[in-house]
Amino acid sequence: MALDKQQIIIAAFIDACDSARIPRSLDCELTEDLVKCCIPGDDVTLTGIVKVRDANSNNGCNKQHTIFNLYLEAISICNDKKQSRRDVSSEGMTFNVSDCHLIQEIHSHPNLFKFLVHCICPSICGHEIVKAGLLLSLFGGTKSETFRGESHVLIVGDPGLGKSQMLQACANVAPRGIYVCGNTSTSSGLTVSVTREGNEFAMEAGGLMLADQGCCCIDEFDKMPSQHACLLEAMEQQSISVAKAGIVCNLPTRASILAAANPAGGHYNKAKTIAENLKISSPMLSRFDLIFILLDQPNEQMDLLLSKHVLGLHKAARIKTNVEENTFEESDMEQDSLRERLRNTGEIIDYLPHPLFRKYIAYAQKYVKPYLSDEAKEIIKEFYLSLRKQFKTGDCTPITTRQLNSLIRLTQARAKVELREEATKDDAKDVIEIMKFSLVDVFTDSTGILDKSRSQIGTGMSTKNQVVRLLTSIQRKSDAEAKSVFRTKELKELSEQLGMDNKKFYHALQTLNLQGYLLYKGQNQYQLVTAGV
Q1: How confident is the model over 149-158, as pLDDT tens digits?
Q2: What is the pLDDT of residues 461-493, one digit of tens each?
Q3: Domains in the chain: how many in total?
Q4: CA 149, CA 160: separation in Å to the nearest integer?
Q5: What percent of the chain has pLDDT over 90?
Q6: What is d(CA 384, CA 379) in angstroms, rounded to the nearest whole number?
Q7: What range does the domain containing 496 cover?
Q8: With bands split at pLDDT 50, 70 and 90, how would you rate the model's confidence at 187?
Q9: Taking the model in full, what pTM does it have?
Q10: Where does the record say this protein resides (predicted)?
């Protein structure tokens, strides 16, 4: 039998100051056809009559009389988020004539993409490619019934490089942004919690549900390993399945997740894979479209510019953020021309205020639905096939179809930044350069060599694991053949079975020799001493 009455609680956030929001709640009563027209986390507009319950209705609970027990008897309800997946409510923003003129003025900027990149967290010097990835994630791609449009970004790096400030800036400019800290968050606080109210159970929305159709910025992502499992479904399926206390339902969480994490030990070790540095599972890492690694490396020119930038901020004066060199390592790939175009050449930028920036993003999300041109599709396909061919090893294939979907979403977001309905080949090229920048950080080892056995999802072996695995294989071969002396050719065949190339094999052989596990006997022969590792 269908219910004819439902009790809900609406919460309104009142801005008490710039950094805090105080929630105010009110009980509401839905009747007849209004029952089950909204779920926890929805934005609703209620029209009703404020009434007072019986003043003695609270006697059975705490033996005290209630002076005023107000509730709202709903007459009509408008659910701002109950619409097709193709639309984004952007907190129900409306655009008047002045807003349209301001948006048109922003759109007429000669170098719009560079201008918007520098408007994100201008207090942080450099890191233009990282800011570009965050900007594309804020705009998002074109949603469909089968593919999500939200992109997830993970920033990993040493402390003190501005990761938290960039996340807070994204939360401030997003039409619907939630900022949480991982070391003080729980699984229920991020997803949904079930509470008991009298004889019935009720659900309360968490951070991801409140950030539905927006972005959820999670700082200190490495401090919440027990909460990662609850994010797997939310990041890929864009929903949360609840089966608690007899409540079985599926709630939408269509939010972009921007996360920042510090490596274990306080400093990123390039000799280890990203999964070993963060101690995060591979399924979790595979959900992120872009992974950026920030390293705190001594650089005289960069340190000089950074010191000028910080001192200029303390003087409250407008400065020129002229970044000639950033802290990322160069690779054997071609030079990133997008980085050159995004660098500030010395001009003074009049940054957008947050309300206006928020309006522009909301307008693009609501009215612009880009599609890929044939040329853009061809460029993305060629790049994806080249990655599959280049990063194919015996143990794993680091590049999967998730990278292909990421390229499509980011290319659509690149066109949405400039309010264009068609994503051109230039948009695809810019996104490919951002993706290359991310892949170089993930695949480069401690020697600066591009390690193709590693993976963006954390698979592959670090240097230590490769040495241990080779030593285990030698021990197994020694037990099977009852001998302890092997020729270099035999050891090389074992390494080839493990998928190691020549450079890694000779490096591992030298390491085992220096550590005393293999003794060089001359004439390209090695004797196995012990394998107790």
Answers
A1: 889 999 988 8
A2: 555 667 777 888 888 888 888 888 888 888 888
A3: 3
A4: 31
A5: 12
A6: 9
A7: 463-528
A8: confident
A9: 0.71
A10: Nucleus
Residue 136 lies in a domain: yes
CA distances from 194 to 204, 245, 249 (A): 6, 8, 12
What are the residues whose beta carbons fall under 8 Å from the beta carbon of 315, sequence distance 6 or more? Answer: none
d(CA 271, CA 285): 18
- Give the CATH number of the domain where residue 500 resides: 1.10.10
- 126 and 36 in a single domain? The answer is no
483 versus 335: the higher-pLDDT residue is 483
Residue 333, pLDDT score: 40
By C-alpha distance, which of 147, 98, 75 is closest to 402?
147
Last residue of a domain, one of 52, 79, 106: 79
Q: Residues 179, 43: one domain?
A: no
Q: Is residue 444 part of a domain?
A: no
Give the CATH number, domain containing residue 225: 3.40.50.300
Q: Is residue 413 part of a domain?
A: no
Where among 368, 391, 411 does a domain terminate? Answer: 368
291 vs 260: CA distance, rounded Å:
10
Same domain, 170 and 215: yes
CA distance 442 to 457: 9
State the chain's mean pLDDT as an integer. 76
Least confident segment among 237-246, 290-299, 474-483? 290-299
Question: Domain check: are 228 and 307 in the same one?
Answer: yes
Say yes or no: 181 and 57 in one domain: no
Give the lowest-confidence range in 94-103, 260-269, 418-427, 447-456.
Answer: 447-456
Rounded distance between C-alpha atoms, residue 303 and residue 305, angstroms: 6
CATH number, position 37: 2.40.50.140
Whether 161 and 302 have beta carbons less than 8 Å apart is answered as: no
**Rounded to whole angstroms, how far apart are CA atoms 206 and 37?**
19
Dihedral sign computed on CA atoms, order 121, 126, 132, 133: negative
Which amino acid, 299?
N
Q: Are residues 125 and 37 in the same domain?
A: no
Query: Rounded to whole angstroms, how far apart are CA atoms 448 and 324?
Result: 21
DSSP states along 104-123: HHHHT-TTHHHHHHHHSSTT
Asked whether 447 and 511 are in contact (CB, 8 A), the reply is no
Does residue 517 have a pLDDT over 50?
yes
| Residue 85 placed within a domain | no
Give the tokens for residue 388.
Answer: 């599959």
Q: Residue 378's pLDDT is what?
A: 93
Contacts 24+ apart (CB under 8 A), 347-351: 347/320, 348/318, 348/320, 349/115, 349/118, 349/119, 349/122, 351/118, 351/119, 351/122
The three-class DSSP label of residue 3 is coil
What is the pLDDT, as a whole number, of residue 24? 72
Task: Tell whether the model's pLDDT for residue 413 goes beyond 90.
Answer: yes
Question: What SS3 class is residue 239?
Answer: strand
Q: In one letter, which amino acid is 192?
A: V
Angle formed by the axes of helices 401-417 and 425-443, to 10°?
130
Which pLDDT tens digit goes with each residue over 63-84?
Answer: 555 566 788 888 888 876 655 4
Q: Which 3 state secondary structure label does DSSP give 17? A: coil
